[in-house]
Amino acid sequence: MLIGGWLRSMERVDQTSQEVATANARNERLARELASTQADYHAVTERLRRQVDELQEAKWALSDANTALESRVARRTAALALANKSLSEAVQELQQAQDELVRKEKLAGLGSLVAGVAHELNTPIGTALTVSTSLCHEARQIKRHVEEGVLTRSALMHYVSDSEEMGDMVERNLRMAAEIIGHFKQMAVDQTSENRRQFVLSDVVSDTLFALSPRLRRSGHLVELALDNGICLDSYPGAISQVLSNLIINALIHAFDTRAQGHMQLHSHLTDDGQGVEIVFRDDGVGISPANQKRVFDPFFTTRLGQGGTGLGMHLVYNLVTSVLGGKIRLHSTPGMGTEICLSLPLVAPHPA
Ligand SMILES: Nc1ncnc2c1ncn2[C@@H]1O[C@H](COP(=O)(O)OP(=O)(O)OP(=O)(O)O)[C@@H](O)[C@H]1O
Ligand SMILES: [Mg+2]
Predict the structure, then answer these.
(1) CA of 200 to the centre of ligand 2 (A)
(2) In what order do the strands lie in the sheet with 338-346?
(3) Whole-angstrom Cα distance, residue 4 to residue 154?
(4) pLDDT of 189 strictly over 70
(5) Which ligand is closest to the CA of 308, given by its number?
(6) What is the position in ligand 1's atom list of the atom closest to the CA of 253?
(7) If we measure between CA atoms, which residue out of 278, 290, 282, 292 comes closest to residue 338?
(8) Nearest ligand to the C-alpha atom of residue 294
(9) Strand pairing report for 338-346 and 197-200
(10) Most informative mutation of 302, 331, 337 for ligand 1 (most atoms within 8 A of CB)
């Protein structure tokens, strides 16, 4: 009984010491796990701290980069504004130079008109001068005959009929000269002041051809006209005349370079709606290559650089047609077959704004 009790106690002691050993082992494991968790925690904390440091550094670097970028953008913007300013000044200077050249071209047109008129005046004034000189000579002879008392009736009759005839001739020639001067005066006024008025288109065409007639005669080329006579415009005759002169002179210079007898045609008719006029100028010359056709209206485009061509003629034509006259211009050309230029103009030109 005693031994049984002792054995049971020993069993319990044994069991308890086993339990203590198990608990100890668990405690040791827990302590190890705790130590490892602690080490992990420290490592994570350390990593986080490093990352926070790195992020902070990155933030500073970003802010530095931002500041540098901002100052670079500001510098670039200032440089760009400066470049822009000098570019717009250059454009303005170019515009002024172009206007000046266009003005000179207009004056050159007037100069050649003056030369043409002077040439035209030569014939009637020269004839009138010759005839009046011989009339004076005859008058002096008659006076001498009277003084010497040798004047015969037949000599007197001869003188009278001669002086009548010569007087007529002088009058006719001076009238012609006056007419030329009248044409010139109108054209000069039209060309210089860009005068707007009502006029008959065919009158302006014939005035223009008249001013160009010495040059046309010398060239041996012909202009054939087919004009609607009744077309009346309220527009700028000087501009129309200048456009037509440029087209004709271009044909003489460029189209018929090597051709002995070139043909030009100038047609005009009212548009279907009755509000405008189409003027078509054609030559049967060398034509213009497709590549050059795109550049004909560009300022300074010329195939005669260094041979008197400035390349402003067609640019001026384009400006006059589209801005002053309020119309449109089209060019068709087939190399070797000639060139056609078609102007569509309103009968009433726009009023300047
Ligand atoms: N009727 C034409 N036939 C052939 N080529 C032409 C004709 N009209 C113009 N061209 C071409 O177009 C170019 C430009 O003409 P534009 O009148 O502008 O200048 P330009 O006659 O050369 O010089 P400028 O008229 O200033 O003295 C000419 O150089 C020429 O090559
Ligand atoms: Mg020209």
Answers:
(1) 26
(2) 222-227, 263-270, 276-283, 338-346, 328-334
(3) 203
(4) no
(5) 1
(6) 21
(7) 282
(8) 1
(9) unpaired
(10) 302
Which of ligand 1's atoms lies nearest the C-alpha of 341? Answer: 1
Return mean pLDDT, the chain.
88
Structure tokens at 44: 């994570």
Pocket residues: Cβ below 6 A from ligand 1: 250-251, 253-255, 283, 285-286, 288, 292, 296, 301-304, 309-315, 339
- What 3-state DSSP class applies to 298? coil
Q: Is the pLDDT assigned to residue 36 strictly greater than 60?
A: yes
Residues linked to residue 280 through DSSP beta bridges, in sequence order: 267, 342
Using the structure block, give the residue that is written with the tokens 């223009």.
208
CATH class of 198-353: alpha beta
Asked if pLDDT for residue 1 goes beyond 70, the answer is no
Which residues are CB-neighbours of 201 under 8 A, at least 6 positions away? 227, 228, 231, 232, 233, 240, 268, 277, 279
pLDDT at 228: 87
